[in-house]
Amino acid sequence: MVGAAVAGIYHGRLTRALALVAAHAGPPAFPILTYHRVNDEADPFFPALPTTVFERHMAHVARHYRVLTVEALVERMRRGDVPRNALAITFDDGYRDNLTHAAPILARHGLPATVFLATGLIGNGEVSWFDRLAMAVKLTTVPALPAPWGERLDLATTPARLRTLERAQAALKAMPDDERSAALESLVEGLGGVDPRGFKSLMLSWDDVQALAGMGFAIGSHTVSHPVLSRLSRERAWAEILGSRTMIEAACGMTPKAFAYPNGRAEDYTTSVARMVEEAGFTCAVTTRFGVNTAATSPWELHRGGPGEHDVPTFAVKLAASRLLAR
User: Fold this and answer.
1) CA gap 181, 191 in Å, rounded
2) Where are the domains of the chain?
3) Residue 325 and residue 327: Cα distance in Å, rounded?
4) Model pTM greater than 0.85?
5) 29-125+203-325 architecture in CATH?
6) pLDDT tens digits for range 15-27
7) Is 117 helix (H, G, I), strand (E, B) or coil?
């Protein structure tokens, strides 16, 4: 019944009316959509939004919203002239399919976006710790393995491996960074290791980043190595924050204005970390805390998320409704 109602709203062309009502309810506010990978590989260990779904998302957004970059919307928020139907689009980490698959779709619809780079993974063949773990779990021939934190990991079937991967990532994220690194290496070794050649062209190169900038993308910072900043000492957190900014400046000749907290939940950064982001010269920072952003939202704790549904009517209705419910 819910699905039928959503489809009725969408196909009855009521989505625009819902979006307009949401845009004019209360003070001006804007959501920030989050994407990571866009491709058609259909690999459950490396989830991505299919290009046809992303195309439909963007077609809907282009019809019903005024899309600006996060950086531009924060500046307009400071001036008090945020458009009533404003929205921002972001990508995290720096995957190469942002250029090869997502960028052409955005260009066709005339939509800007911000790409947040984990700069230590750009142009050097390195990948994130969670991608290394995903590849090790995917390819292992081990049927089961004791985890460093005491749990026995079931690896007998693909569904079991996916459940194990989810639990292992959650357990590792909760550890202090040094402990996480040691546990990760132990786990990857026990799984049989990872051949780095399996990650060829997974991440952007610096030439790719410059190509995105030339297409009108804003380039933001996502630390150097994608650690959970609340798990680091102040000195290491500062090195991750400022280091990523410096690397973008050196490689691209531009100064990033926006920052994205890795993982981005309330427990993944602190007031001290947010202050360091401001001191490093960023004008804004995004979290993964759901909600819309108004003049009352701290520019260094912007809400971000949004519907991830593949079904476009559900995406459209939830996006409009979220502006009403998440204020």
Assistant:
1) 15
2) 29-125+203-325, 129-198
3) 6
4) yes
5) Alpha-Beta Barrel (3.20)
6) 665 555 555 556 7
7) strand
